[in-house]
Structure formats: C-alpha cells, structure tokens
Amino acid sequence: MVAILIPVARGGSTPPPTRVSTPSQSVQELAYSGFAERNASLSVDGKQVWTMQNSLIDCVEPFKNAKADAKKGRSLSLDVEAWFLAQQGNLAAAADLNGYMPNGSSAALTGGSADLSHLDARLEDADYIGAFDGRRVI
In a 10 Å sphere around its CB, with 0-12 CB exposed, 13-18 middle and 19+ buried, how is residue 38 labelled? Predict the structure, then answer.
C-alpha cells in the first residue's frame, strides 16, 4: 500500500474507521492523524511480518502495545512505538493538517521516499508523506 492519507474528521462528521487493513505486508507513505474523539491508535497483531516506512502517525494515543496472550495465540509482547520508529523515515508527530492538506509547517512535508519506482513504475518520487499534491500546500 503506498501513499494513503486518512483525513482528520471535521465538524459533526463521523470519522472513518480507525483500523488500517492491507493485503500487503508493507506500507509506505502513510499519514494517520486525528480521531481524538474515538481514542484511535495503531496496533499490530504480530501474526505477520509487517513493515511501515516513510509514514506519519498523529493520534492522542498513537501506539497500543500487543501483550502476550496465550488464549489468542500470542506468546510475545510487542513495543509498537519502538517497532514503528525503528523503520526508515517514520515519524510520530503533529501532522498539522487543514482537512487532508498539510499546512506549511506540517511534518508530513518531510520524510517521504525518494525512490518508489521499485514498487510500481506509475509512482512518482516524493519528499513528503501522504497522498496529496506536494506542490499545493496550504
């Protein structure tokens, strides 16, 4: 999965689901922000090797650690924050978005991947995180 942005809910609108699912085992250029009213967080179930690179997460409680649970088949606990921040280009910072577009001081304007061609020839290299036109910043 490459270059997705989950917008911050505004006004009385219902926020989108807080669970990110992908058939892929690798995510790049993800910006995940907001959802304070739903206490959203990123969790990893530990059943697969899953990587995230050049991604940004901005939530009230951004990480929820997986605990060992024999009933659920998990023998290991996981420090999700350490796992996320140890991967290339990841940030846990204020996204500073206006709707789904970043403001000029947004952390999303940094940390992008300069080489996406190995993933898909249709992708353009970007020095920003997320799915927006990086040339039009608010």
Answer: middle
